[in-house]
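Q: C-alpha cells for this one, please.
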Amino acid sequence: MPARAIVAEAIGTALLLAAVVGSGIMGERLAGGNVAIALLANTLATGATLVVGGTGRPEGVSKGFFARPTVFADVRNDMTIAREEIFGPVLCILPYESEEDAVRIANDSPYGLAAFVTSGDVERARRVAKKIRAGNVHINGARVDFAGSFGGYKQSGNGREWGEAGLEEFLELKSVFGYAAAAK
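A: Here is the predicted structure, written as C-alpha cells:
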C-alpha cells in the first residue's frame, strides 16, 4: 500500500481508499507500534486533517501490532509523516497543481521502493512513471510481474530480487586481463 498519495487538487476529496489490516514484523515502526502511534499524533499536531482512522487498534483487536486504516489530508511534503516509512495501513494525501509538481513531490523523498501512477490517459501515466525515482512503478493498478525486478532507489536499497536482475545477485563475475592468444 502506498504511504503517500499525490492527488490532483481538483479531485483530492474524491479519493476512495480500501485498506486491509494486518499484523507485521516491524514492531515499533509498524502502524500499531509506539513509534508509529507517536508519528500519527504528531501529524495531527502539525496541521494535517484526519479523514478516517487514527491511533489505536481496530475494533475487536486487543493485542499485536495492528492499526486502524488511517487517511490524512492536508499533508505537506515537509511533514514527518510524508518523509518517513510507516509500515501499516496509513495514507497521506498530498495535493499537486501540475504534472511537474506531482513528479517533484514524488521524488522529494529519501525512499524509492515503489510508486503508483493512476490516470485516464495511459500515455500520460507512462510519461510520469519514467520520471519517478522508484524501483517499481505501477500504472493504473498493474499487478506485480515476477519476471520483472524488485528493489528500490535511494534509501530503499540497491539490490534486486526477482527476474533476471535477481538471479544476477547470485553470480560471481571474473575479469581476466592479458588472456589474449600468444603470438606465434
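A few notes: Residues 98-170 form a domain with the Aldehyde Dehydrogenase; Chain A, domain 2 fold (CATH 3.40.309.10). The beta strands are 4-8, 49-52, 70-73, 90-96, 111-112, 114-117, 136-139, 153-154.
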